């Protein structure tokens, strides 16, 4: 069957859903093609289940900092039940009314480009009058380590949806996924070994964040091994991972979390002269330079592998298709980002090192995240540092990193300051309420010299 | 003894301390006069102890929203011990090193103006070469209700430092103090009756905030009585309060929280031709129009009775004394403010009604505070509303109110947006991280029409 739409979106993860919904709301005829679950990786196998696994232990730590309460847990059975509830038992029915109310036609099956503005889904053909939007996301990268493939490793999918707590777990990769899942499973009773080839965890973030997270993981009982890559893997019942220095790590399960690869193979890119398996390159308007009817949003374009950035790109791409002038103003490594470890790490814009590498004339100032009156009540005495990176020539903040207990909601103030390029002299008049930990802003500006 | 300083600051509460410290840091010779405790009302008898009393129950409520933990409490004994720790057992020794390191001379005693740039403290005379800063704060107002004075009512002081939980408590006044202390003592086991003459609690905030707080207090067992003033009070063992409609409220203790009066009697205002007992009027540079050497900061000037605003005014006044051009850019009813009830209420700038009264052409949009992915993990299913008030002619946010569980730290983003007058079109590019509740910003802007 051949059907015609204004726009065909391939992939119903967060980015694809938002693009389709926004276009549908604007009155366009939209087809949204999905081979698995509407909601995508994030909703079922990444952001959402990992937070469900992490939150109880994070909250328990806060309870222990506040005299007057006694608490026990986390109870793995209840936590896993709540995780199952959060991922809707891998059923996407609850996502559908949102699409239906926006008149988006959901097409279940594997979408594949078949030349210009033409998408096949099995025997069906979808023609796009205006645009095709690629939003097929990313999958876990598997490094070519001898024995790894044969050892049946977990990706983020198995690691976020496991039906029980593995007695022990080796994790390859100390980035966001590795750190969050080390924390989560350790808090539920697993004996976790976390292996990172780089000298430190969370290598893209400020060094103080890496140190605090590593130290907290060690205190929680995680065996953290940095600075040595895995060289071989063998499974004989349990999994044994050999590291560069000859030491070994063993676990009942092995999670590989060393990066992501865009899911661009098998979607017909070759039919329009693009190379499968690579990110689909787009400009700041999310449009392919090669085809003016082709957009790529979310992980598939390789710019910023974060759900909220995919959704942001989706809004812009939809607006571009609707004829508006659009431009990404938040992108790549400078995107706002939160790591839900304990301490949490929330950052936007440049790290100090990143700004210096970019050639900016910057100065960083640091204060303790809980070193203020608000810290007597929330995150009391917990480790944490707040840093702003100031562009000295323009006196605006070009980067900020907060580490500490429950700092995730504190990021947005920095995101606004960075994106709007609010001058320090104006921020000085934005008074943080007493006694909240937001007074760290006051301390930062005072320390800077205001 | 007669001594000369550059600046004499009367009152070592938050505002006085900050002014003295900032001037001392800048190298000026500063005397800071305090009759009671360095740190002031806020540190010992207001903000700090009330938050110590409130935090455990707030946290317990969050634990009950997160499956996987069991918790008990709050244990009044432990909570009161922590409260005593927070107020340093009413000992200000820990405040002194901060002043000493800034070379501020602390003068203990009752400071009193005695003509131009002259302050007496008992037999001592302090001469001010440059300026005198009044920062004597405010005290609880006592309304002229028959029998009230004789009934030995509590002010905020007794209510925040009580050595045990009163079996029952009547509170007159449903503003911030009344609401927070109703919540606090109720959570520790007291039977509380909260009486407010106005038709609703927190009358200056958005109506939805009043409704949600009132409803939560009722659910917690507080007997809330709005719309009827107290007409008489009698104590015979317990206290009996008679209301306008003839009904009565009884309690072992009675807290009066109907407002504050500036502490300007007995400080020698008459010696410079100003009227004692009234707020000391100042301009946007915190300077008296009557005397160019006289500044008044904090509650004493009546502009904004909030600790953080007093400290803000202190920074500006100090800078003005140091010769800088300064101007209040955040003031009065538009100041950022947080009420630590559960749900919390955090607001900055105008309410919708306030903006309309001010003649602005505005539109408000509302979303549920936890109606986003982040709300699956923090403040799950808790009541709460987030509202922005948009100035339609300039397309900037002139007011924001957040109600809900733990929204206090979410306010600063709005404060920056309001103070910096960030256009909605720019805020649209400030992407909230997924899955945090800060995505309420995305929903607000989408609902507005971006």
Please tell me about this protein's structure.
The structure is a homodimer of 450-residue chains. The first copy, chain A, is 28% helix and 26% strand. Chain A has 450 residues and is of the alpha/beta class. Chain A folds into 3 domains: 2-39 and 92-139 and 261-321, FAD/NAD(P)-binding domain (3-Layer(bba) Sandwich), CATH 3.50.50.60; 149-258, FAD/NAD(P)-binding domain, CATH 3.50.50.60; 343-448, FAD/NAD-linked reductase, C-terminal dimerisation domain (Enolase-like, domain 1, 2-Layer Sandwich), CATH 3.30.390. Chain A is globular, with a radius of gyration of 23 Å. Strand 3 (70-72) of chain A pairs antiparallel with strand 3 (70-72) of chain B, so a sheet runs across the interface.
CATH architecture of the largest domain in chain A: 3-Layer(bba) Sandwich
Please compute the radius of gyration of chain A using only Cα atoms. 23 Å
List low-confidence stretches of chain A: none
Structural class by secondary-structure content of chain A = alpha/beta
Oligomer: homodimer
Q: Would you give the CATH topology of the largest domain in chain A?
A: FAD/NAD(P)-binding domain
Morphology of chain A: globular
What's this, in brief?
The structure is a homodimer. The first copy, chain A, is an alpha/beta fold.
List the topology elements.
Two copies of one chain form a homodimer.
Chain A: E1 2-10, H1 14-25, E2 30-34, H2 40-45, H3 47-65, E3 70-72, H4 76-86, H5 96-100, E4 104-108, E5 111-113, E6 118-121, E7 124-134, E8 138-140, H6 156-161, E9 168-172, H7 176-187, E10 191-196, H8 207-219, E11 223-226, E12 230-236, E13 238-243, E14 248-251, E15 253-256, E16 260-262, E17 294-296, H9 307-321, E18 337-339, E19 344-349, H10 352-357, E20 362-368, E21 385-391, E22 396-404, H11 411-419, H12 424-427, H13 440-448
Parallel strand pairs in A: 1-2, 1-7, 2-4, 7-17, 9-10, 9-15, 10-11
Antiparallel strand pairs in A: 5-6, 6-7, 8-16, 12-13, 13-14, 18-19, 19-22, 20-21, 21-22
Helix pairs in contact in A: 1-9, 3-4, 3-7
